[in-house]
Design a protein that fits this description.
InterPro entries: Homeodomain-like_sf, HTH-type_Tx_Regulator, HTH_TetR, Tet_transcr_reg_TetR-rel_C_sf. Keywords: DNA-binding. This is Transcriptional regulator, TetR family. The protein has 203 residues and is mostly helical. The protein has twelve helices and no strands. The chain is elongated and about 60 Å long.
Length: 203
């Protein structure tokens, strides 16, 4: 029984991803997930306590996979990253993020759906578990960039962090269409986006 249940975990996770990337957390149906995975409720509860545990597992998997992907790509080309101003670093990170979106489209869509949960209880629960590593990394980058004179002096750190975070979070809402979900097109849009950002915030 254990071996059979373990083998069905892949089907369960795929069915769950399909549900969570098309519906918000509250509307996502555990019964739909179980039915689409073609498993019994007993098999589901062998792996997860409830829908929340399943959702958090997928979010953690998405964050871990993206972190490993980005770290590996940056380490492959350290000379292209070090010594650049923050806007060039943004471009490189955005390009790697675009590559991740192409390589792992469901994880990418899951993260975008998660940002829409802000204000809901599940968002606070997930952030408490996942932590705020991304926000801390961004603040550290901006601190260093301010020291290096990459930003106009009239803008406060708080304003820069909030503006940059908002712009990157909502990039997909501005540009995403089926034809734009091609790597070269995404990179072109991202480069223009960062150049626009630099025109407003940069020196």
């Amino acid at each position: 029984m254990k071996e059979k249940s373990f083998e069905r975990k892949t089907e369960l996770l795929e069915a769950a991803l399909d549900e969570f990337i098309t519906k918000n957390y509250e509307d996502a149906s555990l019964n739909n997930i179980i039915r689409n995975a073609k498993i019994s409720k007993g098999t589901f509860y062998y792996h997860f306590q409830d829908k929340q545990a399943l959702y958090l597992f997928l979010l953690e998997s998405s964050v871990r996979t993206k972190w490993e992907f980005v770290s590996k790509r940056i380490n492959e080309y350290p000379e292209a990253y070090e010594g650049k101003d923050i806007f060039e670093k943004f471009k490189m990170q955005a390009r790697i993020g675009a590559e991740f979106a192409i390589a792992f489209p469901k994880f990418h869509r899951l993260s975008k759906m998660f940002t829409k949960e802000k204000g809901n209880k599940i968002y606070d629960i997930a952030k408490g578990i996942l932590g705020s590593d991304t926000e801390k990394l961004l603040e550290e980058m901006i601190d260093k960039a301010i020291e290096n004179g990459d930003f106009k002096k009239e803008f406060s750190k708080d304003f820069i962090v909030k503006t940059v975070s908002y712009l990157f979070i909502h990039f997909d809402e501005i540009f995403y269409t089926k034809e734009d979900f091609e790597l070269e097109k995404m990179i072109e849009n991202l480069d223009n986006y960062v150049d626009f950002m630099k025109g407003g915030l940069g020196k």
